[in-house]
Amino acid sequence: MARRSIVSFWGAMSKQQEHHEETRIAVIAVGSNATRLSIKSRDIVTASCVHMSDRIGKLYKSSSFYQTPAFPAGSGPDYVNAVVAIRTELSADAILATLHQIEADFGRTRETRWGQRTLDLDLIALGDLVLPDLGTYQTWRDLPPESQMARAPDRLILPHPRVQDRSFVLVPLAEIMPEWRHPVTGKTASDLLAARPADERASVVPV
C-alpha cells in the first residue's frame, strides 16, 4: 500500500491560537493500537490531528503513517504511528493539557503504563526548550530500563527523555524534519535514527 500522509486526509485545516507566547514548533508523536467504537487506529490518528490543528496551532509538517510493534513485546497489537510538527504560541503546559484532553476525548485511560491505547500523544519538543531544567531532564533521560517501567515524571520533561531511544518516533521525525536538532545533545533526527539498531529501525514499516 502506498505511503499516506496525514495531510492527504485533511489538508491544511488549522488555525492560529490567540495566546501571548512566541511562536515555536511543537513536535508531537501520535500513536494508536486500540480501536474505539469500531473506529480503526489509522482513523483515530487522523482525527486526532484535526483536533490538534484546531486547538494547538497551524500545521507545519506531518509524516506518513507507520506500523510499529507494541512495546514491551507482546503487550498488544501493532501501533499506527506518525509525527506532526505544529507552529504554536501556546506554552508547553498548555499544549500538554490540550493533548491530554484530546486523548480523553478519544477514550484514552491511564490505568496501565505502556498498555494498549486508543490514542497516545507525546510532546517530544517545543522549539529548543529544556524543561523544567537541564538537571531534571538528565535524571529522567538516564533512568535504567527497569525504572522506566515503574516510574513516570510528575511534571513535563522537555525534550522527551526517551526520544533518542524510540525508532517509532525517530523514523517519522527524520522523514519530515531530518535536520531537527535535539535541544540538549545537538544531534539531528537523522543522527539519532542512524544510532538505533538496524533491526529496530526496520521494524517501523510505512503503511
What report would you give on this structure?
With 207 residues, this protein is an alpha+beta fold. The protein has one domain: 2-Layer Sandwich (Alpha-Beta Plaits). The chain contains eight helices and six strands, in the order H-E-H-E-E-E-H-E-H-H-H-H-H-E. Strands 1, 2, 3, 4, 5 and 6 form a six-stranded antiparallel β-sheet that branches. Helix 2 packs antiparallel against helix 3. The termini are close together. About 7% of the residues have low confidence.
What does the secondary structure layout of this molecule look like, with pairings?
Elements: H1 7-10, E1 24-32, H2 41-55, E2 58-62, E3 66-68, E4 79-88, H3 92-105, E5 120-126, H4 134-141, H5 145-150, H6 167-176, H7 189-194, H8 198-202, E6 205-206
Antiparallel strand pairs: 1-4, 1-5, 2-4, 3-4, 3-6
Helix pairs in contact: 2-3
Can you identify the CATH class? Alpha Beta
Structural class: alpha+beta
What's the tally of helices? 8
Shape: globular
What is the CATH topology assignment? Alpha-Beta Plaits
The averaged pLDDT comes out at 86
Number of domains: 1
Low-confidence stretches: 7-20
CA-CA gap between termini = 6 Å
Topology as a string of helices (H) and strands (E): HEHEEEHEHHHHHE
- Spell out the CATH superfamily: 7,8-Dihydro-6-hydroxymethylpterin-pyrophosphokinase HPPK
Helix content: 25-40%
Q: Got a strand count?
A: 6
| CATH architecture annotation | 2-Layer Sandwich
Q: From the alpha-carbon coordinates, what is the Rg to the nearest angstrom?
A: 16 Å
Main sheet characteristics: 6 strands, antiparallel
As a percent range, the share of strand residues is: 15-25%
